[in-house]
Amino acid sequence: MTRCGCPSPFALALTVFLAASLAHADDPGIRILSAGIYRPAAVTGGLPAGLRDQTLSGVDRVTLPTLLAATATVPAAPCRSFGLIFARAGAAAAPLTIRVRHPPLHRPDGAGGSVDIFEIPAGTGLRFVGFTFTEAWEMVAGEWEFTLLAGDRELARQRFTVLPATTATGCGAMVSDAPTPARPAG
Fold first, then answer.
1. Is 79 exposed, middle or buried (0-12, 13-18, 19+ CB in 10 A)?
2. Average pLDDT score over residue span 174-180
3. pLDDT at 115 > cutoff 80
4. What is the pLDDT of residues 128-145, one digit of tens each?
5. pTM for this structure?
6. Cα angle vertex 72, ends 70, 77, to 5°?
């Protein structure tokens, strides 16, 4: 847990939680089942560096979160998670590429960018892709877009409008006394 009680010091979060395989085994498509604001999920691990080389904030594997509000409008706030749960059916042998476009973000170390790209391992079932605001510099208002790709082919897209933050510190009742685990550099 972070100082604000968030599940990770990194913002991008995805799950490798897999439900039972879906019907339609011949349909390799993606269905967005829900999109909006979620309860921050428990981190179960990180992605290997090779799968997250083009990210500004990092990527964690998380448990499947609980939807709090189905919406495309997200007020920026500490520890606020938003994104989508999708179902992938069929053979799904290939990994998915996730592209997150957002307003320009600027880390305190000077690094910045407006697109994060990472890969998630192959698999079928239910998955979550989202973003959790854990740092003040991440809470940038504007359009945020999550795109799920198989190679160059777009499978699904979800847009959110993030509203300006009203506060940049604290997580209220979400504060945890648990120590923050050390993260390897790089």
1. buried
2. 31
3. yes
4. 999 999 899 999 999 999
5. 0.73
6. 90
Domain spans in the chain, listed from the N-terminal domain onward: 12-166
- 75 φ/ψ angles, rounded to the nearest 5 degrees: -70, 125
Taking domain 12-166, whether its CATH number is 2.60.40.2390 is answered by: yes
Residues sharing a CB contact under 8 Å with residue 49, sequence separation 6 or more, in sequence order: 186
CA 49-54-59 angle, to 5 degrees, is 55
State the chain's mean pLDDT as an integer. 75
Strand 59-62, strand 12-15: pairing:
parallel
Q: How far apart are CA 28 and CA 132, in angstroms?
A: 28
Count of residues in the chain: 186
**How far apart are alpha carbons 74 and 163 in whole angstroms?**
6
Rounded distance between C-alpha atoms, residue 118 and residue 148, angstroms: 10
CB of 74 closer than 8 Å to CB of 133: no
